[in-house]
Amino acid sequence: MVKKILQVKDSEKKLRERSREVTLDEILGVEMSKLKEDLVDTLRAQKAGVGISSVQIGSPVRLFIIEIKPTPSRPDLEHLGPIFFFNPETIKKSDNQIKMYEACLSINNADLYGNVERIDSVSIQYLDENGIVQSTDYTGFLARVILHELDHLDGKLFTDRAEPESLMDGGAYRRMNARKK
User: pTM for the full model?
Assistant: First the structure.
């Protein structure tokens, strides 16, 4: 079921809470199965977005999903997911940092952009939807998506990391990108 995505202007306190870990029994249970469905449905119902955390739909547990698909602005992306990340932990980070603009479904419905510096590769350990431990390396855009969603689980938003002078609405962001081309 498509759920309402919490917005900072109405639900900042909830979005700022650290999400709790889930047990294996919970991961394999009916309630979590429903939550996974809701996350997929909600993400797919958005015109933008490649990831969503459970806290963004009002369930503060350590779960997020990513689903990547090619878009007009990123036609080179390959379809990936949905991938479910339960209790994710960073196990290794690169030293190299890259700046890139980000937006968030919980901030002005993804209509606020800001330049954020993040590491360009990360190794994550997590439990998948079957409760099996996975360890995966992510680089580039995928690393950025993973780190953005990990921040949500810790009660952080991309605006906490963005260069304040870079914040702009979607119209200004699209005009800036059009000038670059």
Answer: 0.94
